[in-house]
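Title: Prediction job returns without error message
Component: structure pipeline
Severity: low
Priority: P3
Assignee: unassigned

Description:
Job completed but the reporter wants confirmation the result is attached to the right record. Sequence as submitted:
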Amino acid sequence: MIAIEDVDAGYGDQPVLQNVTLRVARGEFVGLIGPNGCGKTTLLRVLSGVLAPSRGQVRLQGANLRDIGRRQLARTMACLLQRFSLDLPFTVREVVLMGRSPHLPRIGGETRRDFELVQRAMGLTDVSCLADRSITEISGGERQRVLIAMCLAQEPDVLLLDEPTSHLDIRHQVSILDLITRLNRQTGLTVVAVLHDLNLAAEYCRRLAVLDRGRLQALGPPEDVLTTEMIFRVYGVNVLAQRNPISDKPLVVISAGMNHSGDHAGAPR
């Protein structure tokens, strides 16, 4: 469904991504992981069409992304970037309703179905009780859930998420990722998400793409990617990679003092 072909990208004369090639099949849930500054958000911006690659191309359902109009693209793809800013005093309901914009006629307003989809999205993300509150008056975690609701109201085929669990407590982290996984499995929603928590990435993603210094370093199922050696090579920290006794997924274990100063303290244990 999505094909990233030999992509270089950056900002001005500052290169970030180098020779990245990645394919995401319809209905996959792919996690982007890697250290800070490795290019994860930049890759998401390229995927969303916000940032044009300096070399290579991105194809969506066979069409070059640059040839797809913004309104048409928004009917297929929803994207939540970390730098999304909304400081005007819209209510939560109004913010979620913005997700319906690509589907509205050029002349005319929202229909009953639009409002029903908004209500459903708010219910799924546990923000219905905030519907009449101003977006500027709620917590960071609540705002994150509202923005995810806005994306769901868009009814996308592809969902791009940049750290969707940031600012969320553990209950809402699990709740949001359970929801996204359920939509992925039941509706065929294609998901590409930047995740910093390696254990959450292991539990929920079908495949993981590891970026480091702008290059794709590893790609595959979590059990093949999240090894002690790979984590030391990319993150420079000693961990113990073992199996979660409940899910049998990879489990990354750390302990205070394992890495002393926190830099490349030595060979992986």
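Comment from assignee: result matches the submitted record. The chain has nine helices and twelve strands.
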